[in-house]
Model the fold of this input.
Amino acid sequence: MPSSSLMRSMAADLPTLATIRIALSISA
Done:
């Protein structure tokens, strides 16, 4: 798996991870 596609998939997951962290911090 090329590193460029790996970085691209990680960058695509950043908004999702941020949303999950915000939701967890609010619920906590």
Observations:
- The helical segments are 3-27.
- The CA atoms of residues 3 and 15 lie 20 Å apart.
- The two ends are 37 Å apart (CA to CA).
